[in-house]
């Protein structure tokens, strides 16, 4: 599946503009992580772009979100490791299966950190990701009440990729800056 085909698939199932922006941010982060780790950026980017494909179909029900998306991606012929990463990015629906591959950890941590970066950008006067400094994000990571729904433990899976939190945040933030206008930040 090409990136353009993936985008059409995403937007045919996801109508919420903020969710589409989240998927675009996740794609950018996953591509940057793949580049940093010597992985296939196109494949990792597809995982980031399509990980929430079923969010509206499942009503974001944490018990089933990602399972339907994984099934849909499998039917479309996406690589098994992408399908598996999409399925496992939501631990609640994974029913005891654990993330154990770099792509699994990258998708879980990468899509989660986009929420923390977005929340950080939104407290800046210009509300632009271009203004955000990596230290601001890592500082906010310690503030449990800030963006309280962002799972800090999931973000820390970056360490399973051999990346420290500051390095992971810098890679992710720089990736999001490249798509800032496209994601409304």
Structural notes for this entry:
This protein has a single domain, classed as Hypothetical protein af1432 (Orthogonal Bundle), CATH 1.10.3210. The protein has 9 helices and no strands. It has helices at 3-13, 17-37, 41-50, 67-75, 80-88, 102-122, 134-141, 152-155, 165-178. α6 (102-122) crosses α9 (165-178) and α7 packs across α9. The chain is globular, with a radius of gyration of 15 Å. The mean pLDDT is 96.
Q: Which bin fits the share of residues in helices?
A: 55-70%
Beta-strand percentage range: under 5%
In CATH, the topology is named Hypothetical protein af1432
- What structural class should be given to the helix and strand makeup? mainly alpha
Output the CATH class name.
Mainly Alpha
Give the name of the CATH architecture. Orthogonal Bundle
Helix-strand pattern: HHHHHHHHH
Report the strand count. Answer: 0
- The overall average pLDDT, rounded, is 96
In total, how many domains does the architecture comprise?
1
Largest sheet: none
Radius of gyration: 15 Å
Low-confidence stretches: none
Cα(first) to Cα(last) distance is 28 Å
């Amino acid at each position: 599946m090409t990136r353009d085909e993936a985008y059409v698939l995403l937007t045919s199932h996801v109508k919420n503009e903020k969710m589409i922006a989240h998927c675009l941010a996740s794609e950018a982060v996953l591509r940057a992580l793949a580049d940093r780790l010597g992985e296939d950026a196109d494949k990792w980017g597809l995982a980031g772009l399509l990980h929430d494909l079923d969010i509206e179909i499942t009503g974001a029900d944490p018990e089933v979100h990602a399972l339907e998306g994984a099934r849909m991606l499998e039917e479309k012929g996406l690589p098994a490791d992408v399908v598996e990463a999409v399925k496992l990015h939501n631990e609640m629906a994974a029913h005891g299966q654990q993330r154990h591959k770099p792509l699994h950890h990258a998708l879980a941590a990468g899509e989660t950190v986009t929420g923390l970066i977005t929340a950080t950008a939104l407290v800046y006067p210009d509300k632009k990701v271009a203004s955000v400094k990596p230290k601001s994000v890592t500082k906010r990571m310690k503030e449990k009440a800030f963006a309280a729904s962002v799972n800090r433990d999931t973000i820390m899976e970056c360490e399973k990729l051999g990346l420290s939190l500051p390095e992971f945040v810098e890679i992710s933030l720089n990736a999001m800056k490249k798509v800032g206008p496209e994601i409304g930040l």
